[in-house]
Each structure stands twice: as C-alpha cells, then as structure tokens.
Amino acid sequence: MRKGEFDNEMTPTPRERKSKSAAEALQSLMRLCARGERSTGDAMRLMRTWGVPEGERQAVVDRLVAQRFIDNSRYAELYVREKSRLSGWGARKIAMLLRTKGVEKEVIAEALATIDCDEQSDRLAEKLRRKMRTTKAQSDYEMRGKLLRYALGLGYDYDDASMALDKIMAER
User: What is the DSSP letter of 137?
Assistant: First the structure.
C-alpha cells in the first residue's frame, strides 16, 4: 500500500451542521426557555450557531419576548441572585457578564440594586478568610496584595475589598 493511497477513505469527514429555519429555531428556543432562563443575547448566539439567517433572528427574539419566553429583567434578577449568593461574585463581575449576554445597562442596574450590601461584604470577608488559610506569603504586605487581587478578580470594588482586608488582617 502506497502512502496516501486510501486517504479519502480513512479521513473522517466532519459532521455537517444542518442549518435551522427561523420556525425551527423558534420551536427549539421555546423548549430551551421553558426549561431555564435565557437572555436575548443567548438566543441570538444560539441562532447564529444554528445558521439562522441574520435578518430573521431579531423577529424570532421579538416573538419570544412578546410571548414572555425571554425576559431580560427576570433573567438579570435571577443571574444576580445566583452569582452573588452562590458564587460569591461582586457587582462588577456580574455586570460585565450580563453585558456580554446582551442585557441592557438599565436592566443590569435594577438587578444589581437588589444585592444586600451587608450580606455581600460578609460573604467577601468569609471568602477572603478561606483564601488566607491556603495562601502562602512571606509578609503581611505580600498576603494583602494577593488577597486584594483575589477580591478584585471576584468582581468587588477596590474600596470594599480594602475594607474587608483591613478587618481580616486586624483579626489575625
């Protein structure tokens, strides 16, 4: 057998994606939205991967919004509640990710207003205490820097993170 003789038979062909029509996409999105919350950005992204013609995507989203399958304010409220309480994220990180999902700034601001500041600062302090136990540092200055970067990565404001760190470092 010579090299390259059976290349056509041995090379697997990539699975071709069948593009969906607008009606098929609408039905699929209705099923998905009935199972869990989706944003308009999620719907647009899915339709793009399904190959729905660009001109028809907005009409499908408008119909889903009109029938209340998609509601960005409801989605934002649930997202903020989940990410702030369960994941312990700060407002900056949550807002940034909601913007990437196509949620409007006004809706994001309303959803972020539901966060309890005292509860969030307690949650940040607890996360920092846990992180402090596993972080190795040569000095308090180095430890503070590492924990501050961690808190900022979670999406908390510098002032909030600094206040929580002052409180934790004083407990030490």
Answer: -
